[in-house]
Amino acid sequence: MDLKIKGNSAIITASSSGLGKAAAAALVKEGVNVVINGREQQKLESALKELKALKGGRVISCQGDITKKEDIKKLVKTAVDNFGRLDHLVSSAGGPPAKSFLETTEADWYKSYDLLVMSVVRLVKESVEFLKADGGGTIVNITSISVKEAIDNLVLSNSVRMTVIGLMKTLSKELAPGIRANAVLPGSHETARIEELINSQVENAEFENYKEALAAMSKSVPLEKIGAPEKLGDLIAFLSSPKSDYINGSSIVIDGGSASSNL
Fold first, then answer.
1. S-S: 92 plus which of 20, 48, 79, 212, CB 3.0-4.6 Å?
2. CA pair distance 76, 78, nearest whole angstrom
3. How many of the other CB atoms lie within 10 Å of CB of 54?
4. CA nearest 27: which of 195, 237, 254, 242?
């Protein structure tokens, strides 16, 4: 299927690995010119090499920390200076640490809010004038199934990510019709974040070893498997395209049917 986004330009944050990189790969394959971003230069260079090997759009990297205003300004400027336009913003960030409520400090709360919420606020404010140009653009936030169902020992993710959903819904109304804003809510996918959570479960003696914890996680999914990141990338590419031009303000779950929530 031709998604009609060839020649467009996109920024994807936290895209040196995991779901952000999967989103970048999907857009590059559709002919979109992409700026990838991450804090660690070595990981960023490795991702850049991998993405450049794909047939499709151009890929450049911009190292930076999305909790810093100056790095966000540099990221947006890099896209516009190199590609002459900005059509799509895909916001992603590493998850906050796995902790219980009583283990979580005030500093943890502020740091998580800055990472998950204020980074998106600043990215959108810096990007909005460019997203409005050339017929309008899209914003997709990669968040978590934890906004639908609280996950044990993830009080920061369960709480702070809810704010991003409220932000996306508000943006979908205030920025329409020129800009559409949606969120994707992934469940368990094969990423370093899942490895971190599984290792935390082993350390907390919930399971004897990594293999046992992974098997239990897979069994908890009705489809009996952990998600492949590239499938989430395909969803983001679709939401960034005119093929989805009546989807706005939605939070779309991609979890293999794991969540028990009706909504």
1. 20
2. 5
3. 14
4. 237
Count of CB atoms within 10 A of residue 230's CB?
17
pLDDT in tens, 134-182: 889 999 999 999 999 999 999 999 999 999 999 999 999 999 999 999 9
Q: Which two tokens stand for residue 37?
A: 């971003």
* Nearest Cα to Cα of residue 11 among 72, 95, 52: 72
Measure the CA–CA gap between 187 and 19, rounded to whole angstroms: 11
Can you give the pLDDT at residue 260?
87
Three-state secondary structure call for residue 67: coil
Cα four-point dihedral sign 2, 3, 7, 10: negative
Q: Of 246, 240, 247, nearest to 57 (Cα)? A: 240
- CA dist 175 and 98 (Å) reads 34
* pLDDT classification of 67: cutoffs 50, 70, 90: very high
- The 8-class DSSP code of residue 117 comes to I
Q: Report how far residue 262's alpha carbon sits from residue 113's, in angstroms, rounded to the nearest whole number.
A: 27
SS3 content of the chain, % helix, strand, coil (to 5): 50, 15, 35
Does a cis peptide bond (omega within 30 degrees of 0) precede residue 177?
yes
Amino acid identity of residue 39, one-letter, is R
- CB of 75 closer than 8 Å to CB of 11: yes
Are 119 and 68 spatial neighbours (Cβ–Cβ below 8 Å)?
no
Question: CA-CA distance, 111 to 116, in Å (whole number)?
Answer: 9
